[in-house]
């Protein structure tokens, strides 16, 4: 069937503030795409199961302190160590639904004192470029109805506001296919919006080479 016949899969990224619903929607999207007969798999960053991922995980859980530049590079390295796998999957026709990517990396580190957006982007330049970046848009008020902030690093309302501003700056980049979805809608409505965007991009991407991010 045309869904399998020698075409590459699409690289779809979900981004957005805390509790916007990225992980929920990533799972539902993979399931829905599979039900439609597409090959689809989920992936998430940070991917805490590798050696680098364990360092980053322990930092987020505040079990360790890592110097700010260093941890930024580790988050990026955690993506780079998955690039061979990402390329292989896409090539074999699998669409990847990725829960956070380089945009999270840049938005979070550049919200710290004395970090420029420019510096933060450099380690991720040249990563496989997403065919679609869905930004799940939610106000801090709406997000706070979904439960209190957790205890991990970065989970404070002041910091999250800075992060939102940085995401807005990243979305000004028209060389990327950003699509904003209202994440305050019901899970079902958010899902349907993302599914529609994803099916369109799978069709569009299958004849195009995978691009390079910010290159
Ligand atoms: N980080 C970084 O600094 N540098 C990097 O390079 C990367 C990440 C990649 C860990 O992320 C931290 O790492 C993160 C950024 C930083 N720091 N912070 N803050 P994470 O991905 O592990 O974070 P998380 O713990 O999974 O939370 P999250 O991603 O922010 O949540 P979410 O995935 O967007 O939401 P959810 O888990 O799908 O849903 C949250 C709740 O809302 C849940 O109870 C749902 O049932 C509910 N929900 C979801 N959708 C709806 C709707 N539509 N209506 C009502 N309720 C809903
Ligand atoms: Mg999540």
In short:
The chain has 215 residues and is an alpha/beta fold. The chain is built from nine helices and five strands, in the order βαβαααβααβααβα.
Give the overall silhouette.
globular
By secondary-structure content and strand pairing, the structural class works out as alpha/beta
Round the Cα radius of gyration to an integer and report it.
17 Å
Order of SSEs: EHEHHHEHHEHHEH
Give, in spatial order, the strands making up the sheet with the most strands.
Answer: 2-3-1-4-5
Number of strands: 5
Which band does the percent of strand residues land in? Answer: 5-15%
Given the structure, what is the number of helices?
9
Q: Uncertain regions: pLDDT < 50 for 5+ in a row?
A: none
**pLDDT averaged residue by residue:** 96
Helix fraction bin: 40-55%
Q: Ligands in the structure?
A: ligand Z5A, magnesium ion
Report how far the terminal alpha carbons are from each other: 34 Å
